[in-house]
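hey so i finally got around to running both of the ones u sent me last week. sorry it took forever, my laptop kept dying halfway thru and i had to restart like 3 times lol. anyway pasting them below in the order u listed, first the sequence line then the structure token line for each. didnt double check formatting much so if smth looks off just lmk and ill redo it

first one:
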Amino acid sequence: MGEFLGSFRQRLWGCLADETSGKEEEVLRYISGITPEGRIRLISVQEIVYCSICSKRSLVKTEHGSFLSRFTLNELERRLAPFGFFRSHRGYVVNLKWIDEVVSLAKGTYDLVLADAERTRIPLSRRQAKKLRAILCLERFRL
């Protein structure tokens, strides 16, 4: 138990130091999330699959569950962008490492299929499809 508390304290102090340093983008390692039981959990940025909007609150989805966030989706996008996250739609920020497929739908719309257990489908807006092509160096290909 002492080892867990030590680890939690280290992570908590790391988060506090990150927020007070003024350089969150460079040193951010954890996002705080609220469990369904109301407990606060520190979520490693590397664990996050995607973030979305749920009942006017931000939801952070990991392999291990979903957590409410105190940050808006715009704040999450800004904080997570340096770690390979992408705003695919007005309601979603996706970890690029989890994208498995881009599926073409009707009239130039797309879905991103993630490599999680549920094979989650995230909408990709037309405007963001152009940005994603540039990020993935696929300018010559049409998404």
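and the second one:
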Amino acid sequence: MNTPSVDAVGVASNQAPPAAMNLRTIAAQCASGTCPTVYDSGRGTIVVQGYLVSGDHAGVTLPDGEQLVEIPVELLVNAARSLS
């Protein structure tokens, strides 16, 4: 049985790409938006902008299409406050 391949955003190649996201900033570490930020995707999910951490460096095996992202704890606390 053939398993569909998965592209860089985690979409199986035999499926239509997901609808474009309209990101809304929930919490950020700076005003310019070019630093760690937490966004609401508008699709019931959260998108995180931060610093990439390799799976090898962290001792984690990542499946295709996933990456580790490091962000400050304070950013998550601020994001949680703005969502509640």
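quick thing i noticed on the 2nd:
The chain has a mean pLDDT of 83.
anyway thats it, ttyl
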